[in-house]
Amino acid sequence: MSRLGDLIRLERTRQGLTHKQVARKCGVSDKYLMEVEAGTRIIADDQARRILKSMGMTEHTEADFTLDDIAATVDLQSAVPQLTKAAEAKKAPAKQEKAEVVAESGPGVAGSIWLDALSGVLKHVPIYNAVMKEVGHRLLPITNGRIEGAAPDKVYYFMAPDNSLRGFRVQRGDLLLVVPAQAAVDGAIMLLQTPQGRILRKVKRVNDYQAMLQKYDEAFESEIKNFSDLTFVGRCVRLEAELA
Which domain holds residue 36? Predict the structure, then answer.
């Protein structure tokens, strides 16, 4: 299956263009275009971009998604039903005025493939450091309106500020995906709010009112705290680390 071929087919379908119409725009044969879309012919990145550009799709949308983001992250095949639905909706007279406004704003932005069919499929998830300053982002797919079971706008990455969890394979600079959790999750690495700032600790429930906070750098250390003295912010569900 060709990701770039899928992109071309989706954008062509969105615009309601035939293979011949697109082929005429970009100077290739309609047979070549059909083979590219079917995945039976390999197409170079620059050629695919030229074809997409001929249809008015620019490199970036206003959400700052690139074609590489699309091809690497999204299951494009699953977007076809959404495109068909969007195309049918555009035929409704009540939406004609809106369609004219979109057309005036220029191709590749308001009329991009993202806004028409893939809106809500991806999200730029922020990366925060120890003082909760945003230092970057990661692009994550949204599944059934959720990311790792949580609302997309509640999920973020936390950059490990030190090696206090090195024994648990978390080192300084690693990224941990955090989902909201206000209660202790036994055996999980959790983010806690303290008077000194946010910290990462592995949590073990001791009983109904106490938890053991564990860290492991040069040596294993732990302390038992009452739940009433702890403020849990979130549970870490994914670790992203750079290979040395």
Answer: 3-118
